[in-house]
Amino acid sequence: MTVELETGTRIRTRKAILDAAVRVLAQDPGASLGQIADAADVGRTTLHRYFPDRADLLAAVTQEAGRRLGDAAVRARLEEGPGLDALLRACQTCLTLGDLLTLLFTETISLEACGDEDGFSRALDDAIARGLADGTLDPRLSPAWLQGTLWSSLYLAWSELREGTSPQHDVVGQLLLTVRKALSA
């Protein structure tokens, strides 16, 4: 049995292709593999060596999204402190996901397909349950409504950032103010 070791070059090339795929698909979900290869600064043959077809590339992008969302949950420390504070940290951290948010919002990839059951989604659910229990979130709102409001606010903030219509610090401030006022008890 031969085991192919991942060399530094292979890892960097794969990452470059995935990063380019996220950027390009965020702009045009129907982009060709050639467009993605060009954006990654690799040839089509190289892209096909890593991802034989579009389905393989999308599966890898979806897996990468799950990994990045899991990392975001860790960075946001969603298991710490009052529930509302955890959700506010989640908002700030999510904005750093960049074009990955576009892929989620346009349903080019889905949270469910990311294999995120035990990652970001679960951590958000837990933070919401904690916030309802600790009194920082409005008990008149259902957990689904609380999470939907958070994602809707993130969508608006990310749209503003992508359009470049407002400075990042203004967008983040408005996002946090909106979420705090909408969700707090």
**Terminal Cα span:** 60 Å
Beta fraction: under 5%
What spatial form do the alpha-carbon principal axes imply?
Answer: elongated
Q: What is Rg?
A: 18 Å
Parts with pLDDT < 50 across at least 5 consecutive residues: none
CATH homologous superfamily of the largest domain? Tetracycline Repressor, domain 2
Overall mean confidence score, pLDDT: 91
Structural class by SSE content: mainly alpha
Describe the main β-sheet briefly.
none
Give the total of domains: 2
How do the SSEs run, as a string of H and E? HHHHHHHHH
CATH topology of the largest domain: Tetracycline Repressor, domain 2
What CATH architecture of the largest domain would you give?
Answer: Orthogonal Bundle
DSSP E strands, number = 0
CATH class identity of the largest domain: Mainly Alpha
Tally of contiguous helical segments: 9
Helix share bin: over 70%
Provide a compact summary of the structure:
With 185 residues, the protein is mainly alpha-helical. The chain has helices at residues 8-27, 33-40, 44-50, 54-76, 83-95, 99-105, 120-134, 143-163, 168-183.
